[in-house]
Design a protein that fits this description.
single chain, 185 residues, alpha/beta, Rossmann fold, 4-stranded mixed β-sheet, two-stranded parallel sheet, globular
C-alpha cells in the first residue's frame, strides 16, 4: 500500500521465503535503517508475534525511523472482539475464511495453527491487543496523535508524527478502506 506514488517501498521481514528487500527482526529496525528515513511504516499482523515487553521498544523504533511528517499504520487481531466471539460461539467455531483457510479464535489468539504445524513457529502469537492497549502504547512511544478503530476481528491504529498532515493522511487511507474519521485515542 503506497499513499504517494513517489514513495519507494522497502519490504522488511524475518522470513526470507517472502522475498523482502531487507531480512531482519523488527526488534532491530534502528540497526537496519537510519533515523527519519521513512514517510510511513505499515505493519499488518506483526506486533502480536512479539513478546509483550518487546512491543513498546519496537514502537519507539517505528517513531525513530519515521520522518517528522510521517505516520505508522498498524493492524493486529482485536482480542476484545475475539473474546466476544468466543463467549457467543465457542473457541472452535469458524470466525471467517481467509486465503489461508478457515480462521478460528484459537488462530487469532495463538497464531495460525496450520502455519505453526508446518514448522513456521515464528507465526505464533506471544502478545495481543485491544484498541485501548495499542493506542496507549503508541502514545507512550511518542506519537503525537493516535487514532484506533476495531472491526472484523482487527484493531487498526494510525499513529502520526508531530508534523504529519492529519486530514490528508486520513483521506488517503479511506481509499484503502481505513476509516479513522471518528476514532481517536
Amino acid at each position: 500500500m503506497m499513499l504517494n506514488h513517489d514513495w519507494e517501498e522497502t519490504r522488511f521481514d524475518i522470513d526470507p521465503g517472502v522475498k523482502p528487500d531487507v531480512i531482519g527482526s523488527i526488534l532491530e529496525l534502528t540497526g537496519a535503517f537510519k533515523p527519519q528515513s521513512f514517510n510511513a511504516v505499515w505493519t499488518s499482523h506483526v506486533l502480536e508475534h512479539l513478546y509483550a515487553h518487546e512491543v513498546y521498544p519496537t514502537l519507539r523504533q517505528f517513531h525513530q525511523i519515521l520522518k517528522p511528517d510521517g505516520f505508522a499504520l498498524i493492524v493486529s487481531p482485536d482480542l476484545q472482539s475475539v473474546a466476544h466471539f468466543i463467549a457467543q460461539h465457542g473457541i472452535g467455531a469458524i470466525a471467517y475464511h481467509s486465503p489461508a483457510g478457515p480462521i478460528r479464535p484459537l488462530d487469532m489468539l495463538y497464531g495460525h495453527s496450520r502455519a505453526i504445524e508446518e514448522g513456521r513457529v515464528h507465526m505464533a502469537h506471544r502478545t495481543g491487543f485491544t484498541a485501548e492497549r495499542l493506542g496507549n502504547l503508541l502514545l507512550m512511544a511518542g506519537f503525537a496523535t493516535v487514532s484506533v478503530s476495531s472491526q472484523n476481528f482487527e484493531v487498526c491504529a494510525l499513529a502520526l508524527m508531530p508534523e504529519a498532515d492529519d486530514e490528508a493522511i486520513r483521506r488517503s487511507l479511506l481509499e484503502y478502506g481505513f476509516n479513522f474519521q471518528e476514532a481517536k485515542a
